[in-house]
Each structure stands twice: as structure tokens, then as C-alpha cells.
Amino acid sequence: MNQIAAKQPPEISISVVSHAQIQLIECLLHDINRHCRASLIELILTLNLDEILPFAADSFSFPIKIIRNPIPMGFATNHNQAFTYAEGRFFCVMNPDIRLNSDPFKALLACLQDSKVGMSAPLIFNMSGKIEDSARRFPTPLKIFCKAFGRCKGSDYLVENSSIFPDWVGGMFMLFPRDVFKELGGFDQQYFLYYEDVDLCARLRLKSYAVILCPDAKVIHLARRTSHHSFKYFQWHLMSMMRFFCSSLFLKILWLRLTKENP
Predict the structure, then answer these.
(1) Is 242 left (phi over 0), alpha (psi -120 to 50) or beta?
(2) 51 neighbors 166 (Cβ within 8 angstroms)
(3) What is the pLDDT of residues 168-217, one digit of tens each?
(4) CA distance 194 to 153
(5) CATH of domain 3-261
(6) Fewer CB atoms inside 10 A, N or C side of the chain?
């Protein structure tokens, strides 16, 4: 283990939650170890289900803190719990199925230099090398209905070489200034799975923070799309969707959009 890196305070705290996905996470750890040595990183690994580590936690160039949950918890609760252990000036939420071919953090931190930006995210590619639709406008029941019947296709934003400021980005990779995440109170723990990212980005918008997608930061997402073939996950997805649409937050965002588009 790199003792110098371990003694210096981390700049970035990465939170990764494993749901019996430790093999994927081992690959991710090696990617971080290989490509992100220029960044001062600590990683907080939450084992949401009991599993044996196939690696030594002290065998990487960055420190790893391990949390073993006695009972499984949801996305929001797990990452909020990890934040209480985080020491970095920036807090990164990362999925186990992310892979890195380069260091995304230099570009992401550069995008956070503007104090009006509350969260930055990388450009997401799928396993085929195509750009994923990870940056979107806030959902509405009409838009969901339209997509369900195959009428609304294509991306909400055109991603090229310049940064864009979407309504929200997918929660597979998010980087926050520590103070911003703390100001928001983290993710809303009433959501067990799905729509936590939409809710959090909506609260960022209401506090006048921007979300930025930085094309110079690139990562790969080995997406499983569990809700597409599991009834249990589909139920969670539907329940989270209804919770968001029935919330006062959604009404505030809808009103903000209407008043901005119709001054």
C-alpha cells in the first residue's frame, strides 16, 4: 500500500455498494488503482449482502473502508451512510458495474470549479462503445406514457464535445462537492431503489445549483437493466416513479419549468 497517499487526507471519497457483486468491484478497484493514481482517493465499500472479499483491502494504492450491513438497505441509505465515513472534499457515488479506461476525475473536478455547479458526471458509454442516455430532462407522466408506447425515442440532449447542463443524470456516477451533498442532506431515503438521482437533481435545481455532464470524462457502464426482466425490481421502479410524481418537489420543478419557459 502507498503509505504516503494513505497519510494524506483524501481529495475524493468514492462510495461503492456491493449487492453480491464483489467480482465486478474487484475489477473496478483495479481500474481505479491503474488509472487514478494522480488523484488522492479513498474508497468506502459497503457490503449490502454478506460476501467474502477475494482481495486484500490494503493491496491497493488508496485506502479502503469496509462497511458490512447487518441487513440490506436501499441505494439512498447506503450512500448516505458511506458519506458519514467520507473524509474527502468531494464525494463520488459510483456503481459496481462502472469500468475505467482513464482517470475521469481531473475533468470532473475542473467542471466543479464554478460554485454554481453542484454535481458533475462523466459521459457514459455502454459495452458496445455507444453513448448511453444518462443525461435527461425531468420526467413527467406524459413523457413516461409516451416512452412506454414507443412514441418518444431518442436522447433529450445532444452530447458533443462541450459540457451540457441537463436536468438530471443517472446515479451510476456522480461527483459532488462535499459541502453541497451535506447541504442537500444526501439522497432521500424514502426511495429504496430508483429515482433517487432524479429527486436529488431536482433538489439541486431548486437550490439554484446546476448539474453538468463533462464529455472529457469518460467511463464504461456494464448495465444490467434489472427492472426490465425482474418483477420485483419493476415494482420498485414503479413505486419510486409514483412517489416522485406525487411529491411536492415534482410540482415545484414543474412550476419552475413553466415559469422559465413562459416568462
Answers:
(1) alpha
(2) no
(3) 999 999 999 999 999 999 999 999 989 999 999 999 999 999 999 999 99
(4) 21
(5) 3.90.550.10
(6) C
